[in-house]
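Supplementary Methods, section 5.1.

A reviewer requested that the exact input to the structure prediction be made available. We therefore reproduce it here, unchanged from the version used in the analyses.
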Amino acid sequence: MTKPRVGFIGLGIMGLPMAGHILEAGYPLSVFNRTASKSAALAKRGAVTAGSPAEVAGRSDVVLICVPDSPDVEQVVCGADGVLGAIRSGSVVVDMSTVSPDVERRLDAKLREVGCTLIDAPVSGGDTGARSATLAIMAGGAPTSRPYLCGGPPPAGSGGRFSPPAATVSTPGR
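The structure derived from this sequence is encoded token-by-token as follows.
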């Protein structure tokens, strides 16, 4: 079975190790970070460095976003060269940022308009959890997200777990 192509946007204290776990698990990975130099270590390990969130979206089946705040997520998804500019119908966007529920609802509506699924999946566990692949992910979404969530009917909310590829990042005791 071919592994889905994964994109990761936001390579800060949390995102960089999370993206590294995805790469280590053998998933094709495209990455973007506003500070391009943060992509260098992953590029040396085989990740493709993209020039924009749109480029990541165009290369990926699953796009993970881990940025600091609501305006950052909105810019990554809806801004010039944002995810919406190149994402393909059927793709999944997983927002691992801790942002306003209103922002997530707006982004969900915009992504659904183009045939995509949004999973709201803030993480807990800090940089230590990101490095050791022991983050808790509180994931939920619209009923269309059910194939990507385990542990109950959507929205799964706190404690929902992902099917691969994100299990490589979030499964305790990996």
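Residues 101-113 form the longest helix (13 residues). These observations are discussed further in the main text.
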